[in-house]
Amino acid sequence: MDTVVQHILWFLPALWLGMVLAISFLEAPLKFRAPGVTLALGLGIGRLVFRALNAAEVGLAALLLLAALIVSPGSATWSWLGVTVVLLAIQVVVVRPPLTRRADRVLAGENLARSHAHYWYIGLEITKVVALVGLAIAAAP
């Protein structure tokens, strides 16, 4: 059982990493370049996609914490896991709410300047990618 959980502890960060790279660094910027996609449509799609991504990330974080409790990995794995979970929490609790409020205002017809919260989210996303790579390496069987 511990061997299976150890493999899960390595696999889930790799899966999570793939999700973040695909959504945040491919889908998000590319959707606004598609023909016929307006700002309102792009924001609506982005809200749905990032809400789903963040929900999946929270689930993966919970599974990783559970797996780590079962196999009691080394301190490097715990450190990378802690960093990853904290980064996700900051994104979901601190940065996403202002982005959601801004999207609501834009969808209601307001013309707003670019938000600095986007830059914070992107910075946290890049840092989370590094943390997920570190976690996958540290947890490798």
3D structure, described in words:
This protein is mostly helical. The chain has one domain. Helices cover 85% and strands 0% of the residues. It has four helices and no strands. The longest helix is centred in the middle third of the chain and has 33 residues, at 39-71. It is elongated and about 55 Å long.
Summarize this structure as a short list of keywords or feature phrases.
141 residues, mainly alpha, 4 helices, elongated
Helix content percent band: over 70%
What are the segments in which pLDDT stays under 50 over at least 5 consecutive residues? none
| Spatial gap, N to C terminus | 14 Å
Largest sheet: none
Record the SSE blueprint.
Layout: H1 2-31, H2 39-71, H3 75-107, H4 116-139
